[in-house]
Amino acid sequence: MRASLFITCYNDTLYPETGRAVVALLERLGVEVEFNSLQTCCGQMHANSGFRAEAFSQAKRFVQIYRDAETIVIPSSSCVAMIREQYQGLFEELGNERLRRDFAVLSPRIFELSEYLVDHLKVEDLGAYFPHRVAYHASCHGLRALHLGDRPYRLLAKVRGLELAPLANTDRCCGFGGTFSVKNAEVSSAMLTAKLQDILATRAEFCTALDNSCLMHLGGAMHRQFAGVRTVHMAQILAATETHPIEELP
Amino acid sequence: MKGPESLARNKPPRVQLDPRFAPPFPQAALPVLRNTQLRKNVAHAIDVIQSKRARLVEEKADWEELRAAASDLRAHVLDNLGHYLEEFESQCTAAGGHVHWAADGTEARRIVLEIIRQKNANEVIKIKTMTSAEIQLNLFLEQAGIAAHETDLAEIILQLGGEAPSHIVVPALHVNRSQVRDIFAQRMGLPDLSDDPQALTAAARTYLRKLFLTVPVAISGANHLIAETGGVVIVESEGNGRMCLTLPQTLIAIAGIEKVIPRFQDLEVLLQVLARSATGERMNPYTSVWSGVKPGDGPQNFHVVLLDNGRSDMLRRPVERQTLKCIRCAACMNACPVYRQTGGHAYGSVYPGPIGAILTPQLQRLEHAQSLPYASSLCGACYEVCPVKINIPEVLIELRAQVTNREREEPRRFFDPLYLGLRIASFILASPRRLRLAQRLGRIVARLFASRDGWIHVLPGYGARWTRTRDLRGVPSQTFREWWSTRNKGEQ
Question: Inter-chain contact B378–A177, Cβ cutoff 8 Å?
């Protein structure tokens, strides 16, 4: 079984440990991981900022390099949402019949990480060990665009030692929203504060999600405030074991 | 108690909700974010409505089917809008009503003023109407020497208090009970008024009765226009609307052209989703259907002004036209995490929240309100609750593309940090080689700003917008792709 990892531009640059954890996790499950070095970005930032043509070239690149991939795994729910929700429209507007067709064929083979584990590999117990109290932040795209539902919770439930801290208002946005966080920095910060109140109220040690962009936002604020709560992508929790705790992952 | 006549000159609202003059959203949001009372009021009011709505949606086993039916119905209307409008016109006319077509706000205002002048009236009473607010009717009438008295309780509070509405269903949700008391006590001349809800409503009732019995012309909006019967449907909670619809001799209903629905029976679906979505009720207390004129019963002069005001243009655009499916339930603003923090005034328009963020810029033909499509984190909560399935994030992104296409041609935007950044990012991301180089360069630059713990606490220029409230973890010494290539070399 082979999976091609689309790491996404910001994980590649800013959160390589998430990518390394995905590789460790998938290889532990017997999946042969591939990495196409021609990959760059899904185009979400450009699409959501109104840069249609630029987003289209990223979308085209994605389809061209993954045309023949067996499956594609993406550890970022917002990037998967971008691909599922916007590629077709971009191809209809700026692309050609070939691209549209290739994407339609490719599309069912694109998985967000938790989808790949639960739906495709049909595993929930990954042999993970993480003896900490953890709050799960259901990112907006994971929740409403991908409808991940209880998949992340099922995966976390099987992690030995992990105590799941119930988080209130789990459907409420953390205020990141890409360029929204700088274009509307004050409103974004107000949303962030509200989210932090909920997270800190859980008394969790870690806040996790399937999207490092939300975690960059939440983690950045909690670091600023010396809140003592760490943010960590769920792939890293799922990859951690007794013999390889999170600090010792590759 | 002071009578309404002493209030004929109402205070102009402190916040004018006119998109032509409103400051951009981020700027308009600032004072609200610092307003403790307002934020508390907004969050409380929204929580109440939201939890009621959630309970009533939960109990409805066929909610998704209802929602699909409502969405299909509204889409069908938009596909056949001309047909249904003509049918409405002929049925309404046959029932004794007069139908007027207004291409824009100017025409609509002129039509309304002419009708009022024909009746020699210098006062009108109004049941809350969004379209009249859209065309700034009250201000126009005041300038023409005609006092427009709002009769919806929330609108009375706002009008007497010189406040602007901040929500389309609960316009005064940012005002709390003790503030209402102060407004009534001062403006109605009732210094001893308590803030007991019964005392407040009693004061409002006394104030209103005189208006209902003396003012000869009423202005209403319309929740729906029924093509089949020529009927105008008005949905409300207080009964003050029904007073407006029945007591004055002349009634003018102003409605956006998209408000038409094919049959009376369609209300079965629409009223169910509307009440649940808007106020969290199974059924709203007062639903009035007004069809033409009946001698000796109710208004003897009945006018409907059909307002276009940019709607035909929206209808021609494949993505944006879904905006016109809206039934003005406000579920989107109640669900919106942005609106929750800012309330309505920051949107600088009578239509706030997510629907306002897509509707207002279109009504302004993107000449104004260009900041509104960006007043969203695209979290999708609005789309999830919308009873007619308007994909608001999709329209927001489409409008952002239009704003960007215009702005990026402007020379003064060339060095705009966001535009410049996105252009550079696009150049870099177009090639894996360039990305690798940029990652290496970025790492060096980031190191200049990082403190000893590896985190960045202060960034200059545009980056300060991030670091004012959040830290940023520094760039790790190895990218994922670098790790991957060394690992694979090691294995070989």
Answer: yes
Q: Is the pLDDT of residue B31 over 70?
A: yes
- DSSP E strands, B47-121: 98-102
In chain B, which residues have their Cβ closer than 8 Å to the Cβ of A145? 380
**Residue B345 counted as domain residue:** no
- Domain end (from B291, B312, B333): B312
Q: What is the pLDDT of residues B279-292, one digit of tens each?
A: 999 999 999 999 99
- Count of C-beta atoms within a 10 Å radius of residue B462: 15
**B53: in domain:** yes
Residue B135 lies in a domain: yes
Q: Taking CB atoms and an 8 Å cutoff, what residues of chain A touch B466? A: 181-182, 185, 220
**Between residues B217 and B15, which one has the greater pLDDT?**
B217
Overall CATH class of domain A2-120: alpha beta
| pLDDT beyond 90 at B228 | yes
CATH architecture of A133-248: 3-Layer(aba) Sandwich (3.40)
The pLDDT value recorded for residue A250 is: 66
Q: Identity (one letter) of the amino acid at B306?
A: L
Count structural domains, chain B: 2
> Rounded to an integer, what distance in angstroms lies between the CA atom of residue B154 and that of residue B432?
58
Q: Which residue of A has its CA nearest to B423?
A: A54
In chain A, residues with a C-beta closer than 8 Å to the C-beta of B340 are 191, 194
For residue A219, the chain B residues in CB contact (below 8 A) are: 473
Regarding predicted confidence, which is higher, B255 or B173?
Answer: B255
List, by residue range, all CATH 3.40.50 domains of chain A. 2-120, 133-248
- Is residue B128 very low, low, confident or very high in pLDDT (cuts 50, 70, 90)? confident
What is the residue range of B472's domain? 429-491
Reported ipTM: the value is 0.97
Tokens 């000159």 -> residue? B9
Tell me which of B252, B282, B312 is where a domain ends. B312
Nearest residue, CB atoms, B25 vs list A38, A184, A250:
A184
C-beta of residue B317 within 8 angstroms of C-beta of residue B427: no
- CB-CB under 8 Å, A17 with B470: no
Asked if A223's CB is within 8 angstroms of B381's CB, the reply is: no
Q: Say if residues A34 and A72 touch (Cβ distance below 8 Å).
A: no
pLDDT value for A246 = 82
- Cβ-based burial of B116 (10 A; exposed 0-12, middle 13-18, buried ≥19): buried
Whether B443 and B299 share a structural domain: no
Query: Comparing C-alpha atoms, which of A10, A30, A5 is closest to residue A20?
Result: A5
Question: Quick one: B36 and B172 in the same domain?
Answer: yes
Residues B153-202 have pLDDT tens digits of: 999 999 999 999 999 999 999 998 999 999 999 999 999 999 999 999 99
